[in-house]
Design brief:
The protein is of the alpha+beta class. The chain has 2 domains: 2-48, no CATH class; 57-108, no CATH class. It contains 3 helices and 6 strands, in the order E-E-E-H-H-E-E-E-H. The protein has helices spanning 20-33, 37-48, 103-108; strands at residues 2-3, 6-11, 14-18, 63-64, 75-81, 99-102. A 3-stranded antiparallel β-sheet has the order 1-2-3. The protein has a 3-stranded antiparallel β-sheet with strand order 4-5-6. It is elongated, with a radius of gyration of 24 Å.
Length: 124
């Protein structure tokens, strides 16, 4: 049903009102993707119910923690913490096992994962 520059779409018993901008978006999708208007409208429910869950480190495949560590102290296996070849304190060869940066550290720096979690990959 068209009302001037707005259009109503019935979705799960709720009337959604689209604006002229949405209509222009429909036109662009039709031209670029070759979709018909009914195909686009069929996709609206999926878009409206999409999960926009925040990217949380504990849900990422790179998240690592041992049994004794709290989740907030988990490590990110994507970012290896490069140790020195020898201890800067006593000069002895560094034999420590491989370690990773804390997730909190990786999320703070843009050259790592950053606040937007650019390397996030879901465990599932």
């Amino acid at each position: 049903m068209v009302h001037g520059k707005q259009e109503s779409i019935l979705f799960k018993g709720v009337t959604l009102v689209t604006t002229m901008k949405c209509t222009l978006l429909f036109c662009l999708l039709q031209q670029i993707l070759g979709l018909e208007r009914r195909q686009i409208l069929k996709a609206v429910p999926a878009l409206l119910t999409m999960n926009t869950k925040e990217k949380i480190c504990k849900d990422c495949k790179y998240f690592k923690k041992d049994f004794f560590t709290e989740t907030k102290f988990g490590h990110c296996s994507r970012f290896l913490n490069q140790p020195n070849d020898y201890s800067l304190v006593d000069g002895v060869k560094d034999m420590s096992p491989t370690s990773y940066h804390y997730c909190a550290t990786a999320r703070k720096f843009d050259d790592m994962c950053g606040p937007e979690a650019k390397y996030f990959e879901s465990k599932n």
